Amino acid sequence: MFLTRGPLPLAPLWERFFAGGDRRRFSVYVHSTPGYRPDFPPESVFYRRQVPSQVTRWGETSMCDAERRLLANALLDPGNERFVLLSESCVPLTAFPAAYAYLTRSHHSFVGAFDDPGPHGRGRYRAGLAPEIRRHQWRKGAQWFELARDLAVDVVADGRYYPKFKEHCRPPCYVDEHYLPTVLSLVAPARIANRTVTWVDWSRGGAHPATFGAGDVDEAFLGRITNTTTTTGRPCMYNGQPAEVCFLFARKFAPSALDPLLALAPKMLGYG
């Protein structure tokens, strides 16, 4: 599921990734700016895969509304069992068969959730969320999730927690960073892995992670990402065991990164 403002500049890389998979094993859904009309050829995996969309803005509830809209459309296909949220700046770090096996064999959904006692964590809690959610239950995590079907159904059908978030979680409280981590930690704590499968680099500081362009992408860079086996300072766990593979996707990549990614993908990422 791609949540994008408009074009998908890295689509050629995704086309190569999906070319390694059986089309019966995946479906693509794109939520973009209303009025945007992509020009993908009929043979593309992105051809006519847009869902009905509405305007979304960073930091607003509309972002999470779009995520739920993507989930609702993807759930209409009874064959869909795992649901991955991606952006136009995401890239796949492994071949499709490996990613498919990793997700379908997992006992958990990949949603990050941690307790941040500081101003950007518990400091964003709003008293109006009580009694459904108390301050000590407040969690934070990455927006980019992966959900099993039953949890996706619960998220789309949620009429208890989500209305409270829409009413009370306004900037500097951000629904996309707190809703899923908090609610799933409450209702299904044993079902989530407390980590994401999408790598990002927050080391440069600021409200957004680092963006990587053509000058950043080389063998050493991709090797570092694909060999990373820790997240938030802890070893990645997979089905109760330390994981040799931690991340399946990565962001944020600028359009200029496309050519070096295409050149390096066969050697470094296993597809293309």
Give a description of the structure.
InterPro entries: BC10-like, Glyco_trans_14. Keywords: Glycoprotein, Glycosyltransferase, Membrane, Transferase. It comes from Eleusine coracana subsp. coracana. This protein is an alpha/beta fold. The chain has one domain (2-269). 30% of the residues lie in helices and 10% in strands. It is built from 8 helices and 12 strands. It has helices at residues 11-19, 61-75, 96-104, 149-157, 162-168, 175-187, 219-226, 258-269; strands at 2-3, 30-31, 82-84, 86-87, 91-92, 146-148, 198-199, 230-231, 234-235, 237-238, 241-242, 249-250. A 3-stranded parallel β-sheet has the order 2-1-4, covered by helices on one side. Strand 1, helix 1 (11-19) and strand 2 (30-31) form a beta-alpha-beta unit. The longest helix is centred in the first third of the chain and has 15 residues, at 61-75. The chain starts with a strand and ends with a helix. The model has no long low-confidence stretch (mean pLDDT 95).
Q: What is the succession of H and E elements?
A: EHEHEEEHEHHHEHEEEEEH
The dominant shape is: globular
Q: With helices defined by DSSP (H or I, 4 residues minimum), what is the helix count? A: 8
Strand proportion, as a percent range, falls in 5-15%
Unreliable residue stretches? none
First-residue to last-residue Cα separation: 21 Å
Report the mean per-residue pLDDT as an integer. 95
Rg calc: 18 Å
Secondary-structure-derived class: alpha/beta
Number of domains: 1
| Oligomerization state | single chain
- What is the spatial order of strands in the main beta sheet? 2-1-4
Largest sheet: 3 strands, parallel
GO cellular component, one term: membrane
Main location: membrane
GO molecular function, one term: glycosyltransferase activity
Protein name: Core-2/I-branching beta-1,6-N-acetylglucosaminyltransferase family protein
